[in-house]
Specification:
125 residues, alpha/beta, Signal recognition particle alu RNA binding heterodimer, srp9/1, 2,3-Dihydroxybiphenyl 1,2-Dioxygenase, domain 1, 2 domains, globular
Length: 125
């Protein structure tokens, strides 16, 4: 075999109880477009291109706990989202259905939970 095969990351998938509800939250938060919608799957893409964000309905979905605690559902990943105004972006995220985390580990980053409980961070660029 000569050389490795080509790999290209297409999308990050978030499992959740309702793919359409969570996709709508991120569509409004990020200003992205729905590119594919199926009964249990939604794909969003940034209008400027890049890696997509997808949502898959999972009936057995369990919300992660953050900060992590032994013996509880751990987060598998979190999204870091760059913003130009941390206070305004945080207020908008809450208006859309996010919840501000009680524990905030840094002054220049703000941790939130999306409506399905996935943590995400807003930070200044």
């Amino acid at each position: 075999m000569s050389g490795s095969p080509r790999f290209s990351l297409a999308t990050v998938v978030l499992d959740c109880p309702d793919a359409h509800a969570l996709a709508d939250f991120y569509r409004l938060l990020l200003g992205w477009e729905v590119k594919l919608s199926e009964p249990d799957w939604v794909l969003l893409r940034c209008p400027d291109g890049g890696v997509g964000l997808s949502f898959q309905s999972e009936p057995g979905y369990r919300r992660p706990v953050w900060p992590e605690r032994p013996e509880e559902q751990q987060k598998m990943l979190h999204l870091d989202i760059r913003v130009d105004d941390l206070a305004k972006a945080g207020a908008y995220a809450v208006e859309l259905g996010a919840t501000r985390a009680a524990f905030q580990p840094q002054d220049d980053v703000c941790v939130f939970f999306d409506p399905a409980g996935h943590p995400f961070c807003l930070f200044l660029h």
